[in-house]
Amino acid sequence: MLSKDRQSFLKRPTRRNFLQLATVATLSGLTLSGCGWTLAKVKPTPPSPGDRNKLFIYTWTNYTDDELLDRFTEITGIKALVDVFDSNEAMLARLQASGGGAYSIIYPSDYMVRKMVELDLLLKLDFERIIGMNRLFSKFLNPIYDPNNLHSIPLSWGTTGLIYNSKKLSKVPEDWSYLWQDKDKLSRRMTLLNDVREVMGATLKMLGYSYNSTNPQEIKKAYETLVDLKPSIASFSSDAWRSQILSGDLWIAMCYSSDAAEIMAENPDLQYVLPKSGSSLWTDTLAIPKTAPNLEGAYAWINFMLEADVAAQICERLSFATPNQKAFKLLSREIQEDQSLFPESSALERCEGLAPVDEVSELYDRYWTKLTSG
């Protein structure tokens, strides 16, 4: 029988799919020391009409849930309105098209933070307003994609790997190469993510190159290798694989570790493996657009999310590994030792964070279109 901690992983949505708008209500204040909370070191600024009574958040699907939003409202009184995106690129395109819109908090991934900084879209953070940076593991401070965390706060992290049905496969798929070696047996029983950088990156890594290769010959080799696998792939899916692997129609799927943790709780035959040649190590962050209309609310949200018990509950309910060391200590031993969420350091050393590849992005996109069309 599943423990209560593992049961809490049931019935959660994926990290990378759409959900309807979620809202909570009512405004009060941003600093509530009477509740034992100090959410923001608020600098006095003249309120603009409509700014201080609403906080618009643009995030991955179910990085928030009703319980989290209700608690934020209870503590701060702020009405939070959440909109969701399914890719970093979609988020960026919408922000650029709308001139930033009403969003005061966004959730870009690591490589997108760097790209948005280069595009001058993110506010340089005022650390006098932020409480809780000392709660983070040191490895998440001063990241390569955002030196000194000047524009972003790490919120969650994970890996990309393979989830498989141990009753259907005769051997453990230790690396990406398993898909090619057993492609006939796995024909139409496997899926890859609908993500050019992840799929091309995993193939590059298998071939001994960087996940972030900018070498045209290496990228071409990865494409040609994928063309060889294409006839055996059921689909390129970041979401539909979930129901298919639970039903037994799929035997193996490329996925994000957070999604794997959720699905494995529903079927003990499902296992997650981090490929031995290496994979991607992603970090999702909190950032403030330069066009943010509600800075006080934005800093209140950041400080709320840095609270150890809030971060621990997010990990427990939504299956995202936390970069918050104080939150980690609050987790049950079972969750702390869950290798799908918190892999061993030796395995993580073979992983890379996604980095922008602007100089060859068109080449990636061209190969991806050819691979996924038809």
UniProtKB/TrEMBL annotation:
<feature type="binding site">
    <location>
        <position position="111"/>
    </location>
    <ligand>
        <name>spermidine</name>
    </ligand>
</feature>
<keyword id="KW-0574">Periplasm</keyword>
<protein>
    <submittedName>
        <fullName>Spermidine/putrescine-binding periplasmic protein</fullName>
    </submittedName>
</protein>
<dbReference type="InterPro" id="IPR019546">
    <property type="entry name" value="TAT_signal_bac_arc"/>
</dbReference>
<keyword id="KW-0813">Transport</keyword>
<comment type="similarity">
    <text>Belongs to the bacterial solute-binding protein 1 family.</text>
</comment>
<dbReference type="GO" id="GO:0019808">
    <property type="term" value="F:polyamine binding"/>
</dbReference>
<feature type="binding site">
    <location>
        <begin position="195"/>
        <end position="198"/>
    </location>
    <ligand>
        <name>spermidine</name>
    </ligand>
</feature>
<dbReference type="GO" id="GO:0042597">
    <property type="term" value="C:periplasmic space"/>
</dbReference>
<dbReference type="InterPro" id="IPR006061">
    <property type="entry name" value="SBP_1_CS"/>
</dbReference>
<dbReference type="GO" id="GO:0055085">
    <property type="term" value="P:transmembrane transport"/>
</dbReference>
<dbReference type="InterPro" id="IPR001188">
    <property type="entry name" value="Sperm_putr-bd"/>
</dbReference>
<dbReference type="GO" id="GO:0015846">
    <property type="term" value="P:polyamine transport"/>
</dbReference>
<dbReference type="InterPro" id="IPR006059">
    <property type="entry name" value="SBP"/>
</dbReference>
<dbReference type="Pfam" id="PF13416">
    <property type="entry name" value="SBP_bac_8"/>
</dbReference>
<keyword id="KW-0732">Signal</keyword>
